[in-house]
Amino acid sequence: MTDATWREGTPPPLPGPQGLREWLRVVRRGLPAVLVLLLGVLLILPLRGVERLLHGRRRPWTGPHVQWVCRLVLICLGIAWRREGQPLHGPGAVVANHSSWLDILVLNAALPVFFVSKAEVAGWPGINILTRVTDTHFVTRDPRLARAQAQEFAARVRAGHRLLFFPEGTSTDGRRVLPFKPTLFQGFLDPDLPQDLAIQPVTAVYQAPPGRDPRFYGWWSDMDLGPHLLTVLAAKRQGSVVVRLHQPIPVVGESRKSLSAACQFAVSSGFRQVGHSR
What is the SS3 assignment for 265? Predict the structure, then answer.
């Protein structure tokens, strides 16, 4: 869930495709990716209908379906990825650093998750389709709705949904972890949640293509989505991303500040392994 935009530093230029060869790369990567997404949407609708009849709110089929769709899209884009560590077992949620629009694909590819986002994202063209299909949990910052939203959050956790938060509150250049906001952890302390609830910290570390700015995949400040997307698609070679799943942190006995600090330490440690933390 994003908040105030992070604007430190000057973002790299977004030249987009330069010449016919780069436009062909955009088509060669972008068209198959769009077709995979469209097919995934068409298949998930009847799948979710049957799933709802048999399993209620649980998502034993559509979660893995979205996971494989995102893996195929990354293959189409030419972005290599790998996962380190094992997903959380039992009731829980996930928190991760936020670097790019690619996080939607990368984190879904690594493990079935349901993103938590501010309600305004539901109206963003293009992004809104992905958020709807992946059953994003939207949050409205209205004190009058706080209790109802907390109950909905608890119901989804009890149904086995892995809700994913971005505690930094904004996206960065992909080279650092910003301080986590403790207020975003308050929802994990609701008494309606399972007593054995745990939070799994996750670090997504992007490696830029050879010879490109190390911040190549970062999407932050006032960068426009269209030029950034085209610049990524037009790259001669693509880079990679590592998703590190850290040990889950039990919620029982913790405060929102201690949970925030423990999760931030774990996520930052994933950057220190490759010398990116600042």
Answer: helix
